[in-house]
Amino acid sequence: MRSTAILAASLLLSGGCYREISSDERLERETPASEKREELDPQALAQISCADTKERIAEVHGLRGGDRERLTAYLELFKSVQGRADTLQEAVTRNPDFIYRDEYRVIMDAHEYCKEQSEGVREEFERYTRELIQTPTVQEMKKGKPQTLARVDFALLRDAVNALAPEDQGALLTRVDEAEQRVQASLPADSEAKSER
């Protein structure tokens, strides 16, 4: 009798409540909350553009400052263009409608252009970063003695390598470390003592 009552209750509770869930709903349920992201609004995406990239590259080329200023400008430009390209790539990946519907043509055009500009900026930025790593120090006379000095701040150089993340990233960072050690080793004894305080 008791088992019949339990069976009846379970049937009553489940009856009329069952419905098949879609694959999208199942994916939503199984995706951890930390991985769920806000939907990318098509109107906001349509405002993303990399049309300013060529002008900004020309500004980098025209810089009259030293290596630090130029490397900083390349790093900022690369992160900016890469960020926009990544946002559009994510949007297209998450919503294939952007590929097939004419109303989203502006998003797809911006996606292709940003990807193209990102690759161009990466190429220039990487070439310049590798040039600095190839010759990371300069020799100057200080108080009648030759001293090895950093051509550009080593922390900034590491930031550039990490942003680019090339296949030989580890080897490049090792070369930066070695150059920094050479600079430290060439410091006069009194400078070393001051830096340790």
Describe the protein.
The chain is mainly α. It has helices at about 1-15, 25-30, 40-45, 55-60, 65-95, 95-100, 105-135, 155-165, 170-185, 190-195; strands spanning about 135-140, 145-150. Strands 1-2 form a two-stranded antiparallel sheet. Strand 1 and strand 2 (about 145-150) form a beta hairpin. Helix 5 runs antiparallel to helix 7 and helix 8 (about 155-165) packs antiparallel against helix 9. It is elongated, with a radius of gyration of 28 Å.
List the helices and strands and how they pair.
Layout: H1 2-14, H2 23-30, H3 42-45, H4 53-61, H5 67-94, H6 97-100, H7 105-134, E1 137-142, E2 145-150, H8 154-164, H9 169-186, H10 189-196
Antiparallel strand pairs: 1-2
H and E order? HHHHHHHEEHHH
% residues in beta strands: 5-15%
Q: Which descriptor suits the 3D outline? A: elongated
Low-confidence parts: 5-19, 31-37, 191-197
Averaging pLDDT over every residue, what do you get?
Answer: 81
| Total beta strands | 2
Radius of gyration: 28 Å
Describe the strand arrangement of the main beta sheet, using strand numbers: 1-2
User: Which structural category do the helix and sheet elements fall into?
Assistant: mainly alpha
Strand count, sense and barrel status of the largest sheet are: 2 strands, antiparallel
**Treating each run of at least 4 consecutive H or I residues as one helix, how many helices?**
10
Q: What percentage of residues falls in helices of 4 or more residues?
A: 55-70%
Distance between the termini: 86 Å
Number of domains: 1
